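Anyone up for a design puzzle?
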């Protein structure tokens, strides 16, 4: 999925990046719905990304395509 999504720089606000980095560093995937909210507030309208970030946190782990996309991890 990651290769099919282009993020707009305007979506990557200071808040969104801080939330994403904290979620990654602390492995606190309960923050991913908050990240979805931050991206949407910044204008993100890519429904598959927002849906993925907001779904049940038990499915997330390091290597999550959505979190890696926001953090530009390859």
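Challenge accepted. My sequence:
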């Amino acid at each position: 999925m990651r290769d099919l999504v282009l993020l707009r720089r305007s979506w990557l606000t200071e808040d969104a990046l801080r939330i994403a980095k904290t979620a990654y560093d602390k492995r606190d995937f309960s923050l991913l719905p908050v990240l979805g909210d931050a991206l949407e507030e910044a204008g993100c309208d890519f429904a598959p990304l927002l849906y993925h970030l907001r779904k049940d946190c038990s499915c997330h782990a390091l290597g999550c395509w959505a979190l890696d996309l926001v953090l530009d991890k390859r």
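A detail worth pointing out: The two ends are 13 Å apart (CA to CA).
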